[in-house]
Specification:
By secondary structure, this protein is of the alpha/beta class. The chain contains 10 helices and 15 strands. Bound molecules: 4-nitrophenyl 6-deoxy-alpha-L-galactopyranoside (JFZ).
Length: 444
């Protein structure tokens, strides 16, 4: 009886939540979510006027540069070697299917010709709209384009900086005004979603500026962002546009994908990802190629091709996309350490992409030897670590297996199906450096 009451209470709660949530994604949005998941791999580009200082995109905050002094960079930023074709080609070379570009980071600088601010790329000596060039080139090379947009602003007086955690050295004294700031963001987002063709996603960031630090019990925001207004504007302008917000919390109503920063869904090595992965909406995790997002002249801690491919494979097995970052230099060029690694990842993807693109994850828990991705009736078993025994064991796998073979070369492998799981015999495998992929075909 108590169980019955409890269950009806549970049902009541679920219904209450369902009715409280007003957002119903459009059919084209649901389709966009599927193709987003199929695309799997994208390039994050952190770049803007802050790149001139070669010390990360947080340099204004970290060095407490006030607005007056920071504003001088407007005379300095002149990306004469910016070539959208090269950026898109670099993403292509890695096997990436989309780009997420910083339109405006925390320093508030707009990388497009916005009507609503003078703090923008077209007021630098360079004078041209980089976003326009990038959007045109993406269209030409069939590359999807998403836009990073900071909710937090270290430059504008109307942003509620008084309650913000960061940007304390900006020298602002005027009283903020969120209504004015919100209108500004809506105006800019309307430009971005009207003048640059189809936008795959808007990648919001900065919410955490108005909360206690990640991991705190109380993560309530000190301001009401009015996300319902922002999100519905975006979905109204482009129903297929996917909204994500790097607030490091359970997804809010109106969001179309959930993001993780420097961690696989469910892990929290970075201390930024306490949120539980959603089962409802697509997932994405982003990571840097060294330890910096924006260009950093002294950061040479480059990740290896192997570790980045492993990250991609692990992300896919966790049902998440991988958004891998580059921070181009202030002149617009991309350093060779990045382009070389991207090319090498692309060579691996050319051979093995079938086991990544279009797959889904969360079909099998991670094992010491590696992880599993799935498409139709094929399980792609990624052996990332050389097994000690002459076999790998997939505990609890009790779907009927029709066959096992190596992905590369398709040589048949013997296997044994037991009540407790499946053994695949890998004895004489020469383990390649990065990943040995085994295809398990399930009987239909
Ligand atoms: C955010 C940005 O601040 C960063 O510059 C970059 O764009 C990254 C992709 O996203 O990263 C964060 C977010 C939150 C905190 C730190 C970095 N935080 O709460 O300390």
């Amino acid at each position: 009886m108590t169980k019955k009451i409890f269950l009806s209470f549970l049902l009541f709660c679920q219904l209450a939540i369902a009715f409280a949530q007003s957002y119903r994604p459009a059919a084209e949005n649901l389709a966009a979510r599927r193709s987003f998941q199929d695309n799997k791999f994208g390039m994050f580009i952190h770049w803007g006027l802050s790149s001139t200082l070669g010390a990360n995109e947080w340099v204004m905050n970290n060095r407490s540069i006030n607005k007056t002094n920071y504003a001088r960079l407007l005379q300095v930023f002149d990306p004469v070697h910016f070539d959208a074709a090269k950026w898109v080609a670099a993403a292509k070379s890695a096997g990436m299917n989309y780009i997420v570009f910083i339109t405006r980071h925390h320093d508030g600088f707009s990388n497009w010709d916005t009507k609503y601010s003078d703090w923008k790329i077209t007021n630098t000596p360079y004078g041209k709209d980089v976003l326009k060039q990038l959007a045109d080139e993406c269209k030409k090379q069939d590359m999807k384009l998403g836009l990073y947009y900071s909710l937090l602003d270290w430059y504008r007086d109307d942003y509620p900086y008084e309650t913000g955690r960061t940007g304390k050295g900006s020298g602002r004294t005027a009283k903020s005004n969120y209504a004015s700031y919100l209108q500004f963001m809506k105006n800019q987002l309307t430009e971005l979603l009207t003048n640059y063709g189809p936008i795959m996603s808007v990648w919001f960031d900065g919410h955490w500026d108005q909360t206690n630090p990640e991991g705190s019990a109380d993560l309530r925001s000190r301001i009401d962002w009015k996300y319902d207004e922002i999100y519905s504007l975006i979905h109204q302008l482009q129903p297929a546009c996917l909204i994500g917000n790097n607030h490091h919390q359970t997804p809010f109503d109106g969001e179309d994908f959930q993001m993780f920063e420097k961690d696989l869904p469910g892990q929290n090595k970075s201390g930024l990802s306490y949120q539980r992965p959603s089962n409802e909406i697509p997932l994405e995790t982003c990571e840097t190629m060294n330890n910096s997002w924006g260009y950093n002249i002294t950061d040479t801690q480059y990740k290896s091709v192997k570790s980045l491919v492993h990250y991609l494979v692990n992300a896919a097995a966790n049902n998440a996309n991988f958004l891998l970052n580059i921070g181009p230099m202030a002149d617009g060029s991309v350093q060779p350490e990045f382009t070389d690694t991207l090319k090498a990842i692309g060579q691996w993807m050319k051979r093995n992409g079938e086991s990544i693109y279009g797959t889904r994850g969360n079909v099998f828990p991670a094992q010491d030897w590696g992880v599993v991705t799935a498409k139709d009736n094929t399980l792609f078993v990624h052996v990332l670590n050389r097994p000690n025994a002459g076999y790998i064991f997939l505990p609890g796998l009790n779907e009927k297996i029709a066959g096992a073979r190596l992905f590369d070369g398709k040589r048949k492998l013997s296997f044994r199906q037991q009540p407790e799981g499946v053994f695949v015999y890998t004895e004489k495998l020469s383990q390649p450096d990065i990943d040995t992929i085994i295809e398990l075909t399930l009987s239909k």
